[in-house]
Amino acid sequence: MNRKEVDPEKSPNAKFGHLLRTLRDEHGWTQDELAEHMGCSGTHISAVETGRRPPTPRFAASADRALGTGDRLQRQSRAVRHTALLEGFPEYVTHEARAAEIRLYEVGVMPGILQTSEYTSALTARAVERGAITPEQGDERIALVAERQAALKRTPPPLVLAVLDESCLRRPVGSPTTMDGQLARLVEFAALPNTVLQVAPFNMGDRRPFDLPLYILTMENRSLLSYAESAQRGQLERETTSVVPLLTAYHQLQAEALSQAASVAMIEQVRKGTP
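Above: the chain sequence. Below: its structure as tokens.
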């Protein structure tokens, strides 16, 4: 049988196709047999497995049901759809939506889960204007921010601990009205019963343990994972031995940052335009 090999690192399509083929092989099914369970054709299965056809959300959900893989293929299909995002981030988002605790440190821009729609739109419009992303990818980013924020409104809600570098407050995005609304959102966030908001002021200097954005999740089973990114790449880490030192450093960051009360006071000062 002539079987075309697929390099999972070639593209998100190829990675999904490789996973689908691996799971199908584990069941001992042919492409036609899987197609029969899914209600499609073997030719369709072949096209997806070789990366020639992207999986739709409906296809991924159907494959998960047929193969009994929970939402594994649906999660992998996110990477195919979210082509404007750094590697690892689409998968991180699926874990974030189920995490019991979310810890984040952000530099330069407000974290997506705290952005107002106006702030998100202003950031995205500028990226499209620069040619960094296409208008379609911009729409994708906006939709993902809304999706992430909606997932945080579940019951019970997760504990969210956010430390923002002072640059997040000082960097203008959009109009003055947009920034005022965004800063007001931070004050509202700090008042919630399941949140802690702190600012890492500029005068912390080299006492801050991180220079780049970092997200750490504690899942319901108390397992840990982290996501860190630079301008060019993102890294999802699941090994506890690698995540625990980051969690320790995060606690040190919180100890050095302003208290929540002092942080809210700084935000209000920025809103008033005072130093």
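The first strand starts at residue 101 and ends at 106.
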